[in-house]
Design goal:
By secondary structure, the chain is α+β, with helices and mostly antiparallel strands. The protein is about 40% helix and about 20% strand. The chain has an eight-stranded mixed β-sheet with strand order 1-12-7-2-3-4-13-16, with helices on both faces. About 0% of the residues have low confidence.
Length: about 325
Amino acid sequence: MLIAIAAVILLVAGTAGIYVWSLSNTFDTQTVKIPDVFPDEASRPTAAPVDATSGQNTSGQNILLLGSDTRGANDGSIADLTGQRSDTIMVVHVPANRENIYVMSIMRDSWIDIPGEGEAKINAAMSYGGVPLAVQTIEGLLGARIDHVAIVDFTGFKGITDALGGVAIDNPIGFDSSHLKGHYFAEGTHLLNGTEALAFVRERYAFSDGDFQRARNQQAFIKAVLGKSLTVETLSNPAKISGLVGAIAPYLAVDEGLNSAYVAGLAVELRDVRVGDVTFFTLPTMGTGTSPDGQSIVVIDQDKLKAVQKGFQTDTLDAVQSELQTTG
């Protein structure tokens, strides 16, 4: 979500000369660079061929987004979360035709085989081996290559919400916040400020299905932020654009290739994509279960997983979106 907004901002500002240079410089200097992002090449899926005419990867681009809610607590670098578990896992797929975008959430308690470690919850990959093992695990799950990686500090949701002047959310389920004591998020539409937005996307204890509803709320929040960002009011306001870039960059850690040049280039390719062209869905599961060692886990639906794998591998996620879509 933060990368998509930055892409649009850099595209819109592209005619402003020194202005876009300043924004690009802010993005490149304030984002943290993740060292040694990818696993050994021998362990990775084969890179898809590049179309000679368009220069595009024939199976599109896959960006792994890892959300962290721990940086504020341990005051460490967002780029080095070895020993920490990723709180949120999403894979953004940008098709080769650049006509739409797919965002797939993966439940963090999904039970899976982690290379070299055996079976465990998928979010443990970060703890065991940092970003490279997380990438290797996701690539093994999908059978598709990850092209870029970004770690998002949840605190960034607060900053970007305030920079937008608040974000309107249609809350499907009323709940008492465990992160904002005494605050009740009633069912219906709310204009959230930054503090409320952070509490909204972090909540899981208030729901009977825990992380499942949290994933849906995070998807709804991202869609709402994109909707407000892609407005004439926002994009024609230089001060607001600068504020958004400044609010985004410090809370992103990215691989070396995910720089302002890449983001701006992607923005040009996605210039016709609108909020309605972004589809959110969740890796299919069979609900919760218990691991052999007694942990509460999320069980992946292996039959439906095959369709998702094919979608990523052949750039045909549109064929599975109607069944798996959770927010659209």
